[in-house]
Amino acid sequence: MLVIADSSPFVALVKIGHVDVLPKLFGAVMIPPAVADELANSKRPQAVRDFIGKRPQWLSIHAPTSVENIPNLDLGEREAISLARELKADVLLIDEADGVEAAMARHIPITRTAALLRDAANRGLLDLKQTFERLRATNFRIKQEVLDGLLKQHEEFRKQRESRKP
Fold first, then answer.
1. What secondary structure letter does DSSP report for 126?
2. Which has the closest alpha carbon to 92: 143, 30, 35, 141?
3. How far apart are CA 78 and CA 81, in angstroms?
4. Does residue 41 sit in the same domain as residue 70?
5. The pTM of the whole model exceeds 0.70
6. Which 3 state secondary structure label does DSSP give 161?
7. What Rg value do the Cα atoms of the chain yield, rounded?
8. CA 152 to the chain's CA centroid
9. Domain containing 153: what range?
10. Could you say which residues of the chain have pLDDT below 50?
11. How far apart, in whole angstroms, are the C-alpha atoms of residue 87 and residue 150?
């Protein structure tokens, strides 16, 4: 599975201590150089800078051949969308509304951080309710209704899985 990511999922996952779910869910993740630069920026929390400074083997950096000029997006988002489009990625991990809209307009499959966490919980990799509480304690912007909906989906998934057990 070819997965490209913008910076916001990494920032959130490092802050809540769950960046380890990425290789468990996807095997490997690729980011463009501008996203790596954003993660290394001195304005980022030290934990995020440490993460990108000691980049794990499952995370690679790959530059797109060309970068589309997409209005209202920063360079990291533009590079991530351009790379995902160029390599025909299976999924782009991105959260910002304008970036999500731009990716969807280009028919790039996307996953947002909160949905990625639901998927990790469905695989038994984390406790979703606790994880969402930690996410809410950060400056990550997401509506409570979205988190509630994802929690409900996870609970339904768990009930279905339990009902299938012999």
1. S
2. 30
3. 5
4. yes
5. yes
6. helix
7. 16
8. 20
9. 115-164
10. none
11. 29
Residues 6+ apart with CB under 8 A from 105: none
Give the whole-angstrom CA distance, residue 29 versus residue 50: 18
User: Is 69 found in the same domain as 10?
Assistant: yes
pLDDT tens digits along 76-118: 999 999 999 999 999 999 999 999 999 999 999 999 999 999 9
How far apart are the C-alpha atoms of 90 and 103, rounded to whole Å? 12
Q: For the chain, list the strands marked E by DSSP.
A: 3-5, 29-31, 59-61, 91-93, 110-111
Is-contact 79 36, C-beta < 8 A?
Answer: no
Q: What gap in Å lies between CA 31 and CA 45, rounded to an integer?
A: 19
64 with 10, same domain? yes
**Burial level of 116, CB count in 10 A (0-12/13-18/19+)?**
buried
Length of the chain: 166
Residue 11 parent element (H or E): helix 7-15
> What is the rounded CA–CA span in Å between residue 94 and residue 31?
11
For the record, the structure tokens of 137 come out as: 């304690």
Both 27 and 99 in one domain: the answer is yes
Give which of 66, 22, 12 is closest to 81, Cα–Cα. 66
Question: Hey, what amino acid is at 76?
Answer: G
Count structural domains, the chain. 2
107 and 137 part of one domain: no
